Amino acid sequence: MPDVDSTPADVDAALRERLVAFLQGLNVDLGRDLHDETPLLGSGLLDSLGLVQLAAWIEGEIGQPLDPERFDLFEDWRTLGKVLEFIRRHRKP
């Protein structure tokens, strides 16, 4: 849980750090120029098992199960920035 005094930028930075650490734990080579447009899907960075693990991780971050019929996986999780945006939009208050 973020500190009460945390700013949205601090929360976003912490979320980004957790996502990058998670992906690195999957042995995903994100390269040195990590940015919001770093492709995750369709680039070969994530295999099918990695995608399932990412889905479970996102469920933990948003605090609820995912409903695959309510979003477009390849659009909403296409890049690092899209995953971060998805989590911010779906996180339970």
Describe this structure in words.
This protein has 93 residues and is mostly helical. The chain has four helices and no strands. It has helices at residues 8-25, 48-62, 73-76, 80-90. The longest helix is centred in the N-terminal third of the chain and has 18 residues, at 8-25. The chain is globular and about 35 Å long. The chain starts with 7 loop residues before the first helix and ends with a helix. The model has no long low-confidence stretch (mean pLDDT 85).
Low-pLDDT runs: none
The SSE order reads HHHH
User: Which structural class is indicated by helix and strand composition?
Assistant: mainly alpha
* CA-based gyration radius: 13 Å
Q: What is the helical fraction, as a range of percent? A: 40-55%
Strand content: under 5%
Q: So how many helices?
A: 4
Mean pLDDT equals 85
Q: How does the major sheet shape up?
A: none
Strand elements, count: 0
Question: Which term fits the overall shape?
Answer: globular
Distance between the termini: 11 Å
